[in-house]
Amino acid sequence: MITGGSIAPVPNTASTPPPGTMPTTNVVPVPTGAPTEAPAEEEGDGSLPRIIAVANQKGGVGKTTTTVNLGAALAEQGYRVLIVDLDPQGNASTGLGVNARTVQATIYDVLMNDAAIVDAVEPTSVRNLFLTPATIDLAGAEIELVPAFSRELKLKRALDEARDEYDYMLIDCPPSLGLLTINGLSAADDVLVPIQCEYYALEGLGQLLRNVELVKQSLNPTLEVKGIVLTMYDARTRLAEQVESEVRAHFGATVHRTVVPRTVRLSEAPSFGQPITTFDPTSRGAIAYRELAKEVSRGASRRTR
Length: 305
Description:
The protein is of the alpha/beta class. It contains 11 helices and 10 strands. The strands form 2 sheets. The chain has an 8-stranded mixed sheet with strand order 5-6-4-7-3-8-9-10, with helices on both faces. The protein is globular, with a radius of gyration of 18 Å. The termini are far apart. Residues 1-5 and 9-46 have low confidence and may be disordered.
């Protein structure tokens, strides 16, 4: 709900489904303003620069994996990409081989100490791909932000200062609906929602979509749910097919055509500090994220710098 100009996270009221049924009780139709059809693919749609929040309140859905590997695939296409690690676990940072403990500034300093975003940007081993890292210190920001002035818009103001430096900014939101996630949604142009092809795939998704709508109404009028991507797809199981069918039935063309498979190589890549596109460029996971990058960019022209 919204109180005093601030958004309070919506509690998860999902109930546990009976065995053998898909947990769809917590799913709501796409809220007003969210797309019901995928945008037409156009060459050079002129939508850059673009800020995308990768969000899902449920953990373990491939959110960080999608942020890192989609960013790397976009960078491989020649786009200049900044990944903003907004998760206190800092998995996007370690997944790109950046030790956040040794850097001069992190996203915590940007949010709480008013550091400029340019002072918290670190290069990665991938050409055109940059990172604003996070450490466990960010966990305290949820509480520290409460009394802050205009607390929901601190990230937006910081990213706006560097918006023209990048074609894409990808925000790796934490698996919650707290102030950090609200900051990510307030700063974004649109939202990408990863959903794993497993039993509780749709659990809590209704709350996420309602919060997106609340942010749109109160803080970010242009925010849209532009895409849903299915992750951890195991073609050997009927369950994966059932989940895909359920998600596409609920959200139609908002769901990207590309489905990310469950592979060992995708799981191994973060331990080597590399995205899958460099760790194993010919793997099924790398191919999938390159195809997803094409869908996300829709042929947008790279900007001249």
